[in-house]
User: What shape does this take?
Amino acid sequence: MKTQVCIVGAGPSGLLLGALLARAGIDHVIVERQSADYVLGRIRAGVLEQVTTDLLIEAGVGERMQREGLVHDGFELLFKGERHRIDLRILTGGKVVTVYGQTEVTRDLMHARSAQQLPTFYEAQDVRLHGIEGSSPSVSFRNKGVETEIECEFIAGCDGYHGVSRQSVPATALKTYEKVYPFGWLGVLADVPPVSDELIYANTERGFALCSMRSATRSRYYIQCASHDRVEDWSDDAFWEELKLRLDLEARGRLVAGTSIEKSIAPLRSFVAEPMRFGRLFLAGDAAHIVPPTGAKGLNLATGDVKYLSDALIEYFIEKRETGIAHYSSRCLSRVWKAERFSWWFTSLMHRFPEAGEFGQRIQEAELEYLVGSVAASTSLAENYVGLALR
Ligand code: FAS
Ligand code: PHB
Assistant: This one.
């Protein structure tokens, strides 16, 4: 089988890249290790930056997001028992974010792809990349027991942190940077009304908590937990009791508990692999970088990479120019590192670090008090939270 671009991974990065290439008439195939249902079952991100919502509309899959997504023009910081609102719209001169689950983004992209009958191999086994340093790379895999090989001109590694693409780059050609945080996030999805109309990020002496949502009837909550915690260690009741202890009195009174429809623990790490291009292989999204979810940047960084990569591939195949592919890695990494810095900063500010002790807690509270009292500091937080423009 031959194509112009083989995309490895059918998460948001791979599916969005496929949608943008299809609109430009560029032949491509997606190869995904899991089933479509499994991909949809992963509960991940919840906040979309304007860059992401604009891209979904450009890709022709933004209609339901525009109808059902919740536009948020602010969020609240909770510390020392009090909430302080960060007004995104005023502080950034009109920018906002949209609350719309990654699961729904993936569902919309899958539906559009299926309606166009674009070639997608799910449940591909033993996916391997070949010839990425030459001019005729290929991707091989077992499809329903049949050995299959796709010859292509470029491979887009959109297969996430644990994927095969980054591992296919010779170790001597790749520089990686990593920081692992000494805690995780225990997340619960429940069909209960959100505790507030906007997100609440809480810094408490018991640890971080986040009150988010998916709709007016479905809530998403997180609490910081120990790295060694296992999800079976946390009953729903234990989760709701701990969350209440991390909220202010008003939120505690409004909190509606319920049965979890999803409950999982995500480890927190910062990770970057450089460069994001090696020969005919391009890395995009979590395959190249990971941020702690505090700043809601993971999915939004992935869509930024995909915009740069789709523009570069369209320029190469349609205009026969190579400027975009030559600068892909440096353009992505400039934006990636700024988001890595913001996500590290916000995580460091909001979480309890065991070794920092009471002094560390007071320093965090002092920084938060300064931040909510300073237009300059709040503006910096707001413009990073709504997302930096694509250059
Ligand atoms: P993904 O990991 O989503 O997709 C990669 C795809 O490649 C998967 O479908 C996988 O099955 C497939 N794949 C893997 N190996 C393969 C192989 N060898 N062959 C073929 N296919 C292969 N971001 C936020 O903004 N907010 C959050 O709250 C948040 N929570 C998260 C919680 C968890 C547990 C994780 C892991 C991430 C979270 N993220 C969050 C970040 C997340 O949303 C990612 O940024 C987003 O999924 C990135 O999308 P992709 O780059 O497509 O990678
Ligand atoms: C979510 O709703 O899943 C979410 C929202 C904001 C974050 C992280 C996760 O910073």
About this structure: The chain has twelve helices and 20 strands. Residues 8-14, 31-34, 39, 44-46, 102, 124, 127, 158-160, 162-164, 266, 285-286, 293, 296-299, 302 surround arabino-flavin-adenine dinucleotide (ligand 1) (CB under 6 Å). The radius of gyration is 21 Å. Residues 323-350 form the longest helix (28 residues).
